[in-house]
Amino acid sequence: KQEVTQIPAALSVPEGENLVLNCSFTDSAIYNLQWFRQDPGKGLTSLLLIQSSQREQTSGRLNASLDKSSGRSTLYIAASQPGDSATYLCAVRGPQGGSEKLVFGKGMKLTVNP
Amino acid sequence: DTEVTQTPKHLVMGMTNKKSLKCEQHMGHRAMYWYKQKAKKPPELMFVYSYEKLSINESVPSRFSPECPNSSLLNLHLHALQPEDSALYLCASSQDTWQGDYEQYFGPGTRLTVT
């Protein structure tokens, strides 16, 4: 059974720091991995999708990498801003239990202090 | 346009009421999903529709009844809910459900409170 872990559960940093958010998964047989952002009481915003054949994806100040063999992904946030404060979730999709399903980590709550 | 819309934004209902949640997307996606999310937890999958047919029911109680009238619209009918069903209900869509780089797009959610 696929399990996704995000450690730490929460992180508080001063503005301007470069951040690395970690995601690990137990079964390397995945189709893709998706990073989401969720503001309190809101829906999920898709940040980046990495296909299983890719090593990384970039969007603005965000860069996500994928190492399938070791079951790890990192989300790098450059020059963090207070507006980056949110919960960040990673999710993988693979053949385990059906290709329709996303298996989510529990999320990491990020607070960027001005 | 990568927008999934959901109505209403908030819903308060009694345990004897019948209500419906609505979800719409105009991206031409053929897969649509309902998730339930409790506070400080990740979303939990409830139902998946693929090409307007129910493909997954994650053993959801029958007081939740999904419906997919067409490829753009997804409803969740609610009847005789319990207070523990209070949660954020999220709708999502993707191009397909088959393996591949299909990204899921989520709506803003409906905050449901059962009194």
Kindly describe this structure:
- The complex is a heterodimer of chains A (about 110) and B (about 120).
- With about 110 residues, chain A is mostly beta strands.
- Chain A contains no helices and eleven strands.
- In chain A, the strands form two sheets. In chain A, strands 2, 4, 5, 9, 10 and 11 form a six-stranded mixed beta sheet that branches. Chain A has a five-stranded antiparallel beta sheet with strand order 1-3-8-7-6, with no helix packed on it.
- In chain A, β7 and β8 form a beta hairpin.
- Chain B is mostly beta strands.
- Helix content of chain B is about 0%, strand content about 55%.
- Chain B has no helices and eleven strands.
- Chain B has strands spanning about 5, 10-15, 20-25, 30-35, 45-50, 55, 65-70, 75-80, 85-95, 105, 110-115.
- In chain B, strands 2, 4, 5, 6, 9, 10 and 11 form a seven-stranded mixed beta sheet that branches.
- The model of chain B has no long low-confidence stretch (mean pLDDT about 95).
- The chains are: A mainly beta (about 110), B mainly beta (about 120).
- The interface of A and B includes residues 41, 51 and 91 of A.
Brief descriptors of the model:
heterodimer; A: 114 residues; mainly beta; 6-stranded mixed sheet; 5-stranded antiparallel sheet; globular; B: 115 residues; 7-stranded mixed sheet; 4-stranded antiparallel sheet; 11 strands; 56% strand
